[in-house]
Amino acid sequence: MKIERAIDLKSLQRGIDQDSEAQLSSVKSILNQVKEQGDAALFELTEKFDGVQLKELQVSPEEIRQAYEEIDDEMVEIIKEAARNIEEYHVQQKKQSWFFTRQDGTLLGQKITPLDSVGVYVPGGTAAYPSSVLMGVTPAKVAGVERIVLISPPDKNGKLPAGVLVAANESGVAEIYKSGGAQAIGALAYGTETIQNVDKIVGPGNLYVALAKREVFGTVDIDMIAGPSEIAVLADQTANPSYIAADLLSQAEHDPRSAAVLVTTSEVLAEQVAEEVDKQLQTLPRREIAGEAVRNYGAIYLVDNLKDGIHLINEIAPEHLEVMTESPMELLGQIKHAGAIFLGPNSSEPVGDYFAGSNHVLPTSGTARFSSPLNVDDFTKKSSVIMYSETAIKDNAKKIAAFARLEGLEAHARAVEKRLGETEHE
Question: At which positions is NAD(+) bound (predicted)?
């Protein structure tokens, strides 16, 4: 990895608009095909892109039963425990409707209502992601969403990974479908003969999935436009270079466009981490992917002090941030922009990916400056509640009418004046 004092964050930019014109054109074509042809488009596109001829789109109870036979009992228990941890965390986020009254009898409030239906996209391709099932489904369940649909690309045998099916079943998902990429997003947004459309689509995916989610936004809601994964580590001389290298590679192995960054006050540590990354990379099964990510989007930045380091971290606004300093809790209040913050040497990023309970669907590409991890609020909507008393309308109607006329909206003014029994405009 490169060790740099001159900081150029442009080298880390990996937005979905970069070099994606051809992909966007393809995505629009796929979405139109799904909208017009429904199930037939999904069968055709699955054969084209995934190399498999499906007989049915929906996963059968028999396939779920077989999934349990393919996974040992200990792994099933681990999935169950992770699900409990994730539910426990997200229950803390749940909000209730609220109301208050004024002395004039006015009642005001906010009514919180869960969405009717949600589609959870779970990526496939080079890896299986049962953790993404738990992260997408659990907050929706806690919010009270009645219909949760899961969709994921099939393997060459026309099946979903056993871990994905077990996680979905343990989460109580009744509808599971086999389709991936932009066509799956189109099915969730527009509906087909087999798949009823949903109100919101959540979950990470590749560039085609991200572009498709952006295209269907407005027809449905989406969680975010997720880019490639990223990790930043803020460290001083007390940090363990082996830990840091391992954690940087844990994100680099996701995608050739993943970013792995160390910000440190210690030149000695910087050199040790660079050596450790090269060493550990040699034995990784996904070393080609991780190696390309490290070469293109890996960096070690040297800073004079932790204050400068925190400023740089806030500029990067990373998806994952690990703080490996002598007193990490003391720095927490100064960190403004990060999707998930891992404090101390034992809080390796995969702890959050799989087991701690926090959500791993996180803002990427600097969007942590203004957005949040997937959470229970993402699966609810809020309605304002207003009930004016007779006293309140009589006391305030003329003020409201004056405000309306200031904006040139006479009908607004007359509407409230009607409550005063005024008839000069009739």
Answer: 121, 183, 206
